[in-house]
Amino acid sequence: MSIKPKTAVNIGGSLVIRNPVMTASGTFGYGREYSSLLDLNSLGALVVKGLSLHPRGGNRPPRIAETPAGMLNAIGLQNVGVKTFVAEKLPFLRGFDVPVIANIYGETLEEFEEVAGILNAAGGVSALEVNISCPNVKKGGLAFGAEPDTAREVTKVVRGTTNLPVIVKLSPNVSDITKIALAVEEGGADAVSLINTIKAMAVDVEKRIPLLGNTTGGLSGPAIRPVAVRMVWEVVRCVEVPVIGIGGIVSARDALEFLIVGARALQVGTANFLDPQSAVKIVSGIEDYLEKHSLNDIAELIGSLQIPE
Amino acid sequence: MSIKPKTAVNIGGSLVIRNPVMTASGTFGYGREYSSLLDLNSLGALVVKGLSLHPRGGNRPPRIAETPAGMLNAIGLQNVGVKTFVAEKLPFLRGFDVPVIANIYGETLEEFEEVAGILNAAGGVSALEVNISCPNVKKGGLAFGAEPDTAREVTKVVRGTTNLPVIVKLSPNVSDITKIALAVEEGGADAVSLINTIKAMAVDVEKRIPLLGNTTGGLSGPAIRPVAVRMVWEVVRCVEVPVIGIGGIVSARDALEFLIVGARALQVGTANFLDPQSAVKIVSGIEDYLEKHSLNDIAELIGSLQIPE
Amino acid sequence: MQNSGKIIFNRELAGKHYHLRLILEEPFLKPRPGQFFLIRLNDRLDPLLGRPFSVYDCHHQGRILDFVYRVVGRGTGLFSKLKKGGELSLLGPLGRPFNIFPEAKTLVLIGGGMGAAALNYLLKEYTKGPAGARSICYYLGAKTAGEIIGKAVIERRCQVMLTTDDGSKGRRGLITDLLEEDLESLAAQGAVFYACGPRGMLRRLFELISPYKVSCQVSLEERMACGLGACLGCAVEARGEDDLYRRVCCDGPVFEIGEIVW
Amino acid sequence: MQNSGKIIFNRELAGKHYHLRLILEEPFLKPRPGQFFLIRLNDRLDPLLGRPFSVYDCHHQGRILDFVYRVVGRGTGLFSKLKKGGELSLLGPLGRPFNIFPEAKTLVLIGGGMGAAALNYLLKEYTKGPAGARSICYYLGAKTAGEIIGKAVIERRCQVMLTTDDGSKGRRGLITDLLEEDLESLAAQGAVFYACGPRGMLRRLFELISPYKVSCQVSLEERMACGLGACLGCAVEARGEDDLYRRVCCDGPVFEIGEIVW
Ligand SMILES: Cc1cc2nc3c(=O)[nH]c(=O)nc-3n(C[C@H](O)[C@H](O)[C@H](O)COP(=O)(O)OP(=O)(O)OC[C@H]3O[C@@H](n4cnc5c(N)ncnc54)[C@H](O)[C@@H]3O)c2cc1C
Ligand SMILES: Cc1cc2nc3c(=O)[nH]c(=O)nc-3n(C[C@H](O)[C@H](O)[C@H](O)COP(=O)(O)OP(=O)(O)OC[C@H]3O[C@@H](n4cnc5c(N)ncnc54)[C@H](O)[C@@H]3O)c2cc1C
Ligand SMILES: Cc1cc2nc3c(=O)[nH]c(=O)nc-3n(C[C@H](O)[C@H](O)[C@H](O)COP(=O)(O)O)c2cc1C
Ligand SMILES: Cc1cc2nc3c(=O)[nH]c(=O)nc-3n(C[C@H](O)[C@H](O)[C@H](O)COP(=O)(O)O)c2cc1C
Ligand code: FES
Ligand code: FES
């Protein structure tokens, strides 16, 4: 009889989650939408849709388009606003035993500060994930995430406003992601998560118009996984804080790639659309792998990549 | 009876090719490898494997890996060297009526200069494509392509050495590709081609080693097409010179996306591996589309994207 | 709601239309008219997403589901090649169904092209009891005779008014033109309206019907990812106090025609 | 060289091994032993690339091709689900075939695991005429009894020496151990050697056989994209003046064992 391998990981700021698998922001609503389809308590954590100070209507449709092994989205950060979130969405989530991570977004430093402040006071939020990497909004978003200086600044502001662990979510649309990662670490981030979507575009060749109402959107799904794995590999070797891997994970095998290169935890995004049970299947797939490889603790797996010389 | 639509395009420096479809560097060898499988003369142009001053052995195997709707390669610019190319590969190609474009690569400015000089004198080469975007070599390659200044400089050097049209091939691994495009235009490029592969990585989770001998490689194939289309769309709106679209084109429909956003011509890469006839099928697919849409000249299609307001 | 369906048949009907019958392998809910399923091809990352299809008919309380679809792109093209015994992943029944008015005396169904699918099941539900004093008129429009689906079944259940764009069957012209002629009298009878079809048809219907105070439910189509209201991908612009978007997958696909910005 | 193949059958053999028979639909070339085809699943971008498979057997001058494959990953997993009548895209025959020595008196075939595939066709070619004074020894190694493919056919054609890793059939141990015992005498007879199998087996064979001046051809496996020598993806490190790499798809897959850096 084998004992179950340990899967708990510390994802920064002393937040320990029971397994490394979270659901990614924007792909899991506010949790409730999926609650009849899987046991939320079996997730490592749940990241809610990006929250802004005021409700946002989002971009004009069509907002999604399918591409080879991927999809584009240009939702434009439609959300109910942080106050409505706290009043109407959070109470439902408090009924579960799963860490809730609030993904936050602002057009200005002040907005980031205010949103972080509200969530800090709310209770029932376990960490903040600072989105400085959305390719689909005109202001804020990637505007902060493209340069080390602005990225560091946002991080400092949020850090200064909250006692919660601060995760900063990085964009792949940069020449050197390690520079941004180092900057936000300096700014006080407890962890970094990557990658957000890659800016992309698709065309309706019959109508000769963009497939998205917003012209461009963000590419997610299996297509981007190799890019995400490479970036995680670059970042884990230059920062001290935990790295959360995101991008195209649809199976335990995919998740293992990230863990092996050194990610402490993962987020599952687009895969939730293909199979609402994806995240929980990935949890058990990782457990099976650990058992099969006689690893008693996931810590033995994380960062265990060997480079044959 | 309809007359055949015009498909000839000028891809810069007064080089006119009979149709916009070329085969991409590194995916079509030196032409001969595919010559029994399709009529080389039906191509718009043929771009040969990257040439360096001295023969290069390339990277250690394994050199390729498959990913969702894409593949990684880390060939490491293995090639016979420019002199052997001129002596042994070019004569075969002179027997065809198809423009041959030489893709060139150097570790230093001097090497770029020398390679360009040799090809300029060789006869039978219709244009040079300057590779400043290979993610798989330690020196040169992306080292030149990541910053506007170095990109401009390489372009100037090659421009100063040759009378042939100079195409500069850009990397997607940058924050803002338009800056590099503008810089090489300033440097005297007659055209830009994009994108080269996206730096990426995949892991053998059973062995816990990278799937590539080189650890990282370049992602190509349908997976990257939406990223390529977006970058072409960004570049066509800021440079005057022709833009050649590359990335994930496997069908005429895919090629049309690039033409509609404004690419003057295209290169077909990974698709040659899936179906050696890909490029010629794409040529006839484009012709069919033009006829179906009553377009007499491909010029009416290029850049015809409408953005609904 | 997650299920696996085994293909009982996948028959070609006229003109690129197919009739797919599935038997569900897991516990299931009975779908209501207007609801849909997201159906995904197994073992593939390309195409990636599920395709939404309205329930065309169902049997054995929803254990056996019928869909009718038209080949329009890559996904439906691959669906059309599926064979008996094959398996598909399903999520559903999803979405807000048609509101049923058991007391309604006059029903008007307006279907354009593939619209027939959702209306077929609605019609079945309305006609499963004794007919009573209810009258049902089905305004059915198609491009051409070959694209009219299920006419025989419909005719058994109600009165059919037909147009084709090319005049190859029924009257030549748009179905909304035909409806326009009868609209005033139908509205006066207090008819309840249901419509599915291309956006252009629905927009025209909106123009025609706005002057009347009648209930007109329409079923909309928008690209979808999650089908559960989580991704906000399927937004349509809606009228209303807050001016936000509505999600076709869960606020719809059935809307009162007046809720939507056309 | 580009072709489309219709599946005649795709039978499960023992332990995750399948026997696929195709009939080509376009003009074709007769493959030679050691050559292979790149076989691609139609209508898919995932998996993207063709899979290389050695010709296991062929009939009607190469119009009908047999392959034997083992399910090891996603591609072969999908192959195993293919049914009669399905279509596959083929490119081939590709690569440098085995050198045949019509005068050779003693042949030694060494096969490990799936190695059997390429050697089977080689054996057939060598035994199609009158046997004459030629002796053929086949050293066949497998993990376990269930993974030995085509033994009956082989035994009809030559003498078989068998090992399994677990001793469930033949001698327990590695096939190279068994060969080692006989090697000196085989080499003295001027035997010609052919080997296919996992890299570890071939490396060991190299160590054993280097001292002898005999011809030993091995068939290598490497990931491939083009199959035509164009992409340089299938490189293996080779000995030689220029120290460059060789391409398995066109310089091989068959190499003299001494050409390769093991
Ligand atoms: C609620 C609902 C019910 C539907 N019921 C039916 C039905 O009963 N019968 C039928 O034939 N069709 C129906 N449709 C339309 C059907 O979903 C599309 O025709 C189908 O998704 C096209 O897929 P494709 O891969 O062939 O086309 P592609 O154009 O290749 O698809 C590309 C992407 O766009 C999406 N897409 C394309 N067209 C539509 C569309 N009209 N609506 C939503 N998404 C689209 C696809 O799902 C896919 O994600 C319904 C759509 C909705 C939203
Ligand atoms: C010349 C040659 C002849 C072969 N003949 C046979 C045969 O007759 N029977 C048989 O069962 N197998 C044969 N193989 C091996 C076979 O090609 C692989 O088992 C198969 O490609 C695995 O595909 P997959 O998708 O199941 O595995 P995955 O691991 O999912 O494949 C991922 C990628 O790696 C490649 N790959 C994985 N393993 C190998 C391998 N061993 N060799 C080359 N590429 C690989 C795949 O083609 C694909 O591109 C041969 C290989 C070569 C090079
Ligand atoms: C429909 C959609 C909406 C998203 N919304 C957000 C968001 O609000 N905030 C955010 O940080 N990331 C958002 N993302 C990005 C995802 O969280 C994730 O980083 C990305 O999709 C890559 O992961 P995947 O390939 O697993 O989907 C969104 C992605 C999708 C597909
Ligand atoms: C195996 C392989 C080798 C390549 N070699 C070169 C090269 O030598 N020089 C170069 O500029 N690009 C090279 N490329 C990049 C391609 O020319 C092309 O830019 C890229 O693959 C994207 O196009 P695709 O998606 O159509 O393949 C190579 C790509 C592949 C897949
Ligand atoms: S499809 Fe995701 S919200 Fe409707
Ligand atoms: S597979 Fe392309 S060179 Fe061998």
Topology pattern of chain C, helix = H, strand = E: EEEEEEHEEHEHEEHEHEEEE
Main beta sheet of chain A, described? 8 strands, parallel, barrel
What share of the residues of chain A does DSSP label as strand, in percent? 15-25%
Q: What structural category characterises the helix and strand content of chain C? A: alpha/beta
Number of extended strands of chain C: 16
Helical coverage of chain C, percent range: 10-25%
Low-confidence segments of chain C, given as residue ranges, are: none
Enumerate the spans of chain A where pLDDT stays under 50 for 5 or more consecutive residues: none
Name the biggest interface. Answer: A-B, 46 and 46 residues
Order of helices and strands of chain A: EEEEEEHEHEHHEHEEEEEHEHEHH
Strand count of chain A: 16
Q: Strand sequence of the main sheet of chain C, in spatial order? A: 4-3-7-1-2-6-5
**Structural class label of chain A:** alpha/beta
Written overview of the protein:
The complex is a heterotetramer, with two copies of chain A (309 residues) and two copies of chain C (262 residues). Chain A has 309 residues and is of the alpha/beta class. Chain A is 31% helix and 18% strand. Chain A is built from nine helices and 16 strands. Chain A has helices at 82-94, 109-122, 142-145, 148-161, 177-186, 225-236, 252-261, 271-274, 278-292, and strands at 9-10, 16-17, 21-23, 45-47, 64-67, 70-73, 100-104, 127-131, 166-169, 191-194, 198-201, 203-204, 209-210, 216-220, 243-246, 265-268. In chain A, the strands form four sheets. Chain A has an eight-stranded parallel β-barrel with strand order 3-4-7-8-9-10-15-16, surrounded by six helices. A four-stranded antiparallel sheet of chain A has the order 5-6-14-11, with no helix packed on it. In chain A, α2 (109-122) links the parallel β7 and β8 (127-131). In chain A, α2 runs parallel beside α4. The mean pLDDT of chain A is 95. In chain C, the strands form three sheets. A seven-stranded antiparallel sheet of chain C has the order 4-3-7-1-2-6-5. With 262 residues, chain C is α/β, with parallel strands linked by helices. Chain C contains five helices and 16 strands. The longest helix of chain C is centred in the C-terminal third of the chain and has 14 residues, at 175-188. In chain C, β1 and β2 form a beta hairpin. Helix content of chain C is 19%, strand content 34%. Chains in contact: A-B, A-C, B-D, C-D. Chains A and B meet through β11, β13, α6 and α7 of A and β11, β13, α6 and α7 of B. Bound molecules: flavin-adenine dinucleotide (2 copies), flavin mononucleotide (FMN) (2 copies) and FE2/S2 (inorganic) cluster (2 copies).
